[in-house]
């Protein structure tokens, strides 16, 4: 199901020809881990929040779990004419012993750089925005030119919205 969602996501983005790419840190346990799509949640998909940007594309999830960062990001993205490509510096979920989120290690981020460059190759010419400090550092380290940086919305939703407004509407 997650793999199929990701395939549908990239297929739809191919035809949309996005102008922007948001690079985050890693999939969250209540978001991408459950949906297969970065910066989403089961609830966003159940509520059909992505349909505005992906008409005719049906993503499938089993539950209805919400994820705070995904909700904030899509609240902002909904204002754009086209959705950005969303990806992570490390595309797998770095779990702690309890199965929750942890920060990716340097080795994991190095492994993720290959997947990141491959995804970037799929969308030539997109302008990149890093989301969160780890993503910012990874982009710098592997030579990804960014058009800007957004604070991660996990504990800074208000600041994320303000920065988003500045980049896209001022």
Describe the structure concisely:
The protein is α/β, with parallel strands linked by helices and about 170 residues long. The chain is built from 7 helices and 4 strands; from the N terminus they run αβαααβαβαβα. The radius of gyration is 15 Å and the shape is globular.
Describe this structure in words.
The mean pLDDT is 89. It is built from 7 helices and 4 strands, in the order αβαααβαβαβα. The chain has a 4-stranded parallel β-sheet with strand order 2-1-3-4, with helices on both faces. The N and C termini lie far apart (39 Å). The protein has helices at residues 2-16, 32-35, 42-46, 68-77, 106-122, 133-142, 157-169, and strands spanning 20-24, 85-88, 127-131, 146-150. Helices cover 44% and strands 11% of the residues.
Rg from C-alpha positions?
15 Å
Structural class: alpha/beta
**End-to-end separation:** 39 Å
Calculate the mean pLDDT score and round it: 89
Q: Oligomeric form of this entry?
A: single chain
* Low-pLDDT windows of residues: none
Q: How would you characterize the largest beta sheet?
A: 4 strands, parallel
Organism: Paenibacillus timonensis
Domain Uracil-DNA glycosylase-like: 17-157
InterPro entries: Uracil-DNA_glycosylase-like, Uracil-DNA_glycosylase-like_sf
Protein name: Uracil-DNA glycosylase
């Amino acid at each position: 199901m997650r793999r199929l969602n990701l395939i549908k996501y990239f297929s739809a983005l191919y035809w949309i020809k996005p102008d922007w790419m948001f690079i985050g840190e890693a999939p969250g346990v209540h978001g991408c881990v459950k949906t297969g799509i970065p910066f989403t949640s089961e609830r966003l998909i159940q509520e059909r929040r992505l349909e505005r940007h992906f008409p005719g594309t049906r993503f499938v999830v089993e539950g209805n779990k919400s994820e705070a960062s995904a909700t904030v990001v899509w609240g902002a993205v909904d204002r754009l004419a086209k959705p950005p490509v969303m990806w992570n510096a490390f595309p797998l979920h770095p779990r702690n012993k309890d199965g929750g989120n942890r920060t990716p290690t340097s080795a994991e981020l190095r492994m993720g750089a290959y997947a990141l460059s491959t995804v970037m190759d799929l969308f030539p010419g997109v302008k990149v925005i890093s989301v969160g400090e780890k993503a910012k550092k990874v982009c710098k380290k592997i030579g990804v030119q960014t058009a800007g940086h957004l604070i991660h919305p996990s504990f800074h939703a208000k600041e994320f919205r303000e920065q988003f407004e500045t980049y896209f509407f001022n």
